[in-house]
TrEMBL record:
Full protein name: FixJ family two-component response regulator
Range of residues in the leader sequence: none
Keyword Phosphoprotein: yes
Keywords: Phosphoprotein
Residues covered by the Response regulatory domain: 6-120
Source taxon at top rank: Bacteria
Gene3D superfamilies named among the record's database cross-references: 3.40.50.2300
Pfam families, per the entry: Response_reg (PF00072)
SUPFAM superfamilies documented for this protein: CheY-like
PTM-bearing positions, type 4-aspartylphosphate: 55
Entry keyword Phosphoprotein: yes
InterPro entries documented for this protein: Bact_response_regulator (IPR050595), CheY-like_superfamily (IPR011006), Sig_transdc_resp-reg_receiver (IPR001789)
Length: 128
């Protein structure tokens, strides 16, 4: 695992951001958290992020809309989605748009770490 990997966590729930941040920093990742897609898009981390972990349902811009927007900008940053409301149609849309993984909350730590390792090693391999 590359210790210098920068992960951006985007979720409108502060407790999810904090828990994910704590988990990933304990694993040696540099983590930046954002409360919205807009906040992330306006940040300096847009240029340096190695992987985005985002909620599906957020106000203003959803996680899938963020992924589509990023691809429209020519960015190939790997995306991992997490959601409390797993929906097969949304999952399929996210994976077709290029997501690496789609995790239902609550998800296990090993599932998230596996997705993250896949995203950082082979961004073209959607697995979950």
């Amino acid at each position: 695992m590359p210790v210098s990997s920068i992960i951006s966590v985007i979720d409108d729930d502060p407790s999810v951001r904090l828990a994910t941040n704590n988990l990933l920093t304990s694993r040696g990742y540099t983590v930046h958290t954002f409360g919205s897609a807009h906040e992330f898009l306006q940040s300096a981390q847009l240029e340096t992020t190695g992987c985005v972990i985002t909620d599906v349902q957020m106000s203003v811009m959803s996680g899938v809309e963020l992924l589509t927007h990023m691809r429209g900008l020519g960015r190939v940053t790997p995306f991992i989605f997490m959601t409390a409301f797993p929906d097969e149609a949304v999952r399929d849309r996210a994976l077709r748009a290029g997501a690496i993984c789609f995790l239902a909350k609550p998800f296990s730590t090993p599932a998230l770490i596996q997705c993250l390792e896949t995203a950082l090693s082979d961004p073209g391999d959607a697995t979950m």
